């Protein structure tokens, strides 16, 4: 299977972002990609208040476009994520990833479980002010009936999420992101390769790059990693790009059969510790 991770620099200009996404998805399909992944918040990205202003419903312009282009190009498209507008009666929306099939139908919807409430390089990120966490993990099915596990950005730091996706059958882990510049430099590749190795899965990670708004900057370096932890393809840190790789699912089966760490798990020996509310 040929996959593509799309790297772009979204801003608070949705029409311009959509034009860029359209150009890069078409390039990916033209190069033979069957599964294309856009980055986190590709329709609109900026500071906290910009997130709420750019929120859309799943029948808005972003996902309507995603459904149309997936059907036109006959590709599986994971439309990164968007800020999903809150339903009536709710104060917060969600950070939502949508998998659209080659027929243009929505195949799966995943709402980001882990909120990015951190302090990085002096910038206070409080995703939970505008978006509520999801509570369901999602495995969908892409080309050639291949199971894919959905996630978004900060989820990457929570290995239990990916282990569950792998145990539920995922063979490809999808990671649309807007990893900050600082965390991309030190953590991005390490975490992606770790998730690939420990779950013996392919990882397709599409990251944003460069400055989206004053003080809001992502690090690029989108990549595809194989189940042995080998980086099959990557982009640089400061440009739009389409990262292409051919996934050998037979190689994955060999890795899992000759080095059966998933099969050698001992669930009966594991238990979650009891922790205090302050931990």
TrEMBL record:
Q: Does the keyword Aminoacyl-tRNA synthetase apply?
A: no
Any idea which GO molecular function terms this record carries?
Answer: hydrolase activity, acting on carbon-nitrogen (but not peptide) bonds, in linear amides
Q: Which PROSITE patterns match?
A: CN_HYDROLASE, UPF0012
The entry's family comment says: Belongs to the carbon-nitrogen hydrolase superfamily. NIT1/NIT2 family.
PANTHER family per UniProt: DEAMINATED GLUTATHIONE AMIDASE (PTHR23088:SF27), NITRILASE-RELATED (PTHR23088)
* The UniProt record lists the keyword Hydrolase: yes
Q: What is this protein called?
A: FIG003879: Predicted amidohydrolase
Alphabetically ordered keywords of this record: Hydrolase
CDD domains named in the record: nit
Q: Which residues form the CN hydrolase domain?
A: 1-249
**Gene3D superfamilies given in the database record:** Carbon-nitrogen hydrolase (3.60.110.10)
């Amino acid at each position: 299977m040929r996959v593509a991770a799309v790297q772009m620099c979204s801003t608070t200009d949705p029409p311009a972002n959509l034009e860029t996404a359209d150009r890069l998805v078409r390039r990916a399909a033209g190069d033979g990609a069957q599964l294309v992944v856009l980055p986190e918040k590709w329709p609109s990205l900026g500071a906290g208040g910009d997130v709420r202003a750019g929120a859309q419903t799943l029948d808005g312009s972003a996902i309507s476009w995603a459904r149309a282009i997936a059907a036109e190009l006959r590709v599986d498209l994971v439309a990164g994520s968007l800020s999903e507008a809150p339903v009536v009666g709710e104060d917060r929306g969600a950070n939502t990833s949508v998998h659209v099939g080659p027929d243009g139908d929505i195949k799966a919807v995943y709402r980001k479980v882990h909120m990015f409430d951190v302090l990085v390089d002096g910038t206070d990120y409080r995703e939970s002010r505008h978006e509520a966490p999801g509570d369901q993990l999602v495995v969908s099915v892409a080309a050639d009936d291949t199971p894919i596990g959905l996630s978004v950005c900060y989820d990457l730091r929570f290995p239990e999420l990916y282990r569950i996706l792998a145990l539920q059958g995922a063979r490809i882990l999808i990671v649309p992101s807007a990893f900050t510049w600082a965390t991309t430099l030190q953590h991005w590749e390490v975490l992606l390769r770790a998730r690939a190795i420990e779950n013996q899965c392919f990882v397709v990670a599409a990251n944003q790059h460069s400055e989206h708004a004053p003080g809001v900057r992502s690090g690029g370096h989108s990549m595809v990693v194989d189940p042995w932890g080998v980086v099959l393809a990557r982009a640089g840190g400061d440009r739009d790009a389409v990262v292409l790789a051919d996934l050998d699912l037979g190689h994955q089966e060999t890795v899992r059969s000759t080095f059966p760490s998933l099969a050698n798990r001992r669930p009966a020996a594991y238990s979650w510790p009891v922790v205090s509310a302050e931990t």
